Amino acid sequence: MSVINDAVEAYRKQFGEEPAGLWAAPGRVNLIGEHTDYNDGFVLPFALPQRTVAAVSPAPAGEWTVCSTFTDEAVSFGLTQPGEVTGWAAYVAGVVWALAEDGHEVPGARIALASEVPLGSGLSSSAALESAVLTALVDLGGLEVPLDRRPSIAQRAENVYVGAPTGIMDQSASIRCQEGKALFLDCRSFEVDQIPFDLAAEGLAILVINSNAPHQHVDGEYGARRKSCEEAAAILGVPALRDISVADLDNVLPRLGDDVMRRRVRHIVTEDQRVLDTVALLREGRVREIGPVLTAGHASMRDDFEITVDQVDVAVEAAIAAGALGARMTGGGFGGCVLALIEAGKAQVTTEAVEAAYAQRGFKAPTCWTVTAGPGATAITA
User: What residue stretches are annotated with the Galactokinase N-terminal domain (predicted)?
Assistant: First the structure.
């Protein structure tokens, strides 16, 4: 309950009253399907138990003030345009702007934020913040915003207002996931299917390993990967790389004169297939068999998409050497977290193996914890 208490206390401190309500949205772990979302492909995230909480009350129309536990600064703004509010508050101003752009009369609000989603870890703390604020404003204003429409509004806030070129996966997971399920999302149609993901029943667990190598999305590398994929799709004459199958690769790759672009395409196409393979295995109850698929995905991110760093590669190798059934980096890359599919009860031995490997390399110690699939954004009732 501490994150809830933190949000309430931050609200009291800033506004001198009790909040009218509390809303929460989770971070996410992407089980498989990295960088496929902006290629109209498939992803399979699940929501973390860790959440961002928004304590919120109404304010006069056209007025918004936001504070948080991660800074002493409170920011007030009216209805703004992209670029007018910067820093962490831009994520909140962006949600207000995106809702207004979608034709809604956004209620004024006083907002205090607290989060237990690790920042900069690749677990989508930004989408958790956006989704908590969006859900609060929709409820507070009685806005008619269907659930399946909300992720694209939150994504627009991040893409256009904040300027981060992310796909639709993070916001979809934070808003649409269900407890005990992984979210199979078609990033072209936005259709979803809730896939059973009760690892405890299989004697398994997911260990998240935060490499503590900072993860940054608003940088040139993420944008460069996206641009390369879009250019390749144009050369190949398809709407997106999702329209190429693994069987097509031998024919289409020679048409790309640049070896780097060929490897980028190969990752996306094979990663889409890995998502489909993982979904099929989970539907059939063959949970243990997803391990090698996860590990193959990591090799593809490392060698073809080139988005891993030494810390995450070492974590994957150490986890597998300690007996993990599979392991891979999760998130956009260049730092962040690794997930390992392990036998239940093996979290400590796996953690110790990764810690030892980090110490041997002189890396900052990792942070490790087990996770289960949690629910998406929701109001918190007393």
Answer: 9-58
> How high is the pLDDT of residue 218?
42
Tokens in use for 303? 């060698």
Q: How many CB atoms lie within 10 A of CB 363?
A: 18
pLDDT in tens, 209-237: 999 986 554 468 888 999 999 999 999 99
Cα separation of 112 and 222, whole Å?
Answer: 30
Are both 250 and 354 inside the same structural domain? Answer: yes
> How many other β-carbons are positioned within 10 Å of the β-carbon of residue 365?
11
- Kindly report the CATH number assigned to the domain that includes residue 317: 3.30.70.890
Q: Do 124 and 22 have their domain in common?
A: yes
261 and 167 in a common domain: no
- Does residue 102 share a domain with residue 19? yes
Q: At what angle do helices 347-361 and 310-321 cross, to 10 degrees?
A: 140
Structural domain count, the chain = 2
What's the pTM? 0.91
Are residues 104 and 225 located together in one domain of the fold?
no
pLDDT at 331: 86
CATH classification of the domain holding 41: 3.30.230.10
CA atoms within 13 A on the CB side of 92: 27
In 3D, which of 127, 137, 131, 130 has the Cα closest to residue 167?
Answer: 127
Instruction: With beta carbons less than 8 A apart as the criterion, state whether 168 and 39 touch.
Output: no
User: Which amino acid is residue 299, in one-letter code?
Assistant: A
Is the domain of 179 the same as that of 222?
A: no
Which residues are designated catalytic? 170
- Long-range contacts for 222-229 (Cβ within 8 Å, ≥24 apart)? 222/164, 222/165, 222/332, 222/333, 222/334, 223/165, 225/35, 225/264, 225/305, 225/307, 226/35, 226/38, 226/165, 228/260, 228/261, 228/264, 229/35, 229/38, 229/39, 229/264, 229/265, 229/268
Given a contact cutoff of 8 angstroms between Cβ atoms, the answer to whether 45 and 93 are in contact is no
Q: How far apart (Å, rounded) are the C-alpha atoms in residues 145 and 134?
A: 10
Q: Which residues pair with 341 in a beta bridge?
A: 206, 326
**Co-location of 230 and 171 in the same domain:** no
Residues of the chain short of pLDDT 50, as ranges, are 217-218
State which residues form the domain around 274.
Answer: 200-371
